[in-house]
């Protein structure tokens, strides 16, 4: 097994461990930051009234779907960026001029 393959498998194992171990060993329920913040504000200032009301308050299922959509769009942008960067690096290493934007030659008299 090549060294890079071993390192990749160790990284995958570390990511799985970091994601899975808290689920196995942490007692209690995981709560969202919004709920914790609302509880803290209610405890510190019981007469607090929000300045604005939301225009659209989706159900839990719709909110979960919107969150998943946001994550998918973000992952798409990140994947696109890494794909472009990798292709640009490969084209530059191969010595082709396709890695740079099209620019007219310096002696072009248009």
TrEMBL record:
It is found in: Cell membrane. GO terms for molecular function: cobalt ion transmembrane transporter activity. InterPro entries: CbiN (IPR003705). The chain crosses the membrane at residues 7-25, 62-82. Pathway: Cofactor biosynthesis; adenosylcobalamin biosynthesis. Part of the energy-coupling factor (ECF) transporter complex CbiMNOQ involved in cobalt import. Forms an energy-coupling factor (ECF) transporter complex composed of an ATP-binding protein (A component, CbiO), a transmembrane protein (T component, CbiQ) and 2 possible substrate-capture proteins (S components, CbiM and CbiN) of unknown stoichimetry. NCBIfam families: PRK02898.1. This is Cobalt transport protein CbiN. The gene is cbiN.
């Amino acid at each position: 097994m090549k060294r890079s393959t071993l390192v990749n498998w160790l990284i995958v194992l570390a990511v799985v461990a970091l994601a899975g171990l808290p689920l196995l060993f942490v007692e209690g329920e995981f709560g969202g930051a919004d709920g914790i913040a609302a509880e803290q504000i209610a405890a510190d200032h019981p007469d607090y009234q929000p300045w604005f009301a939301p225009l659209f308050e989706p159900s839990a299922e719709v909110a979960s779907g919107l969150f998943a959509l946001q994550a998918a769009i973000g992952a798409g942008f990140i994947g696109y960026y890494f794909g472009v960067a990798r292709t640009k690096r490969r084209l530059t290493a191969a010595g082709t001029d396709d890695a740079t934007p099209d620019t007219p030659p310096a002696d072009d008299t248009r």
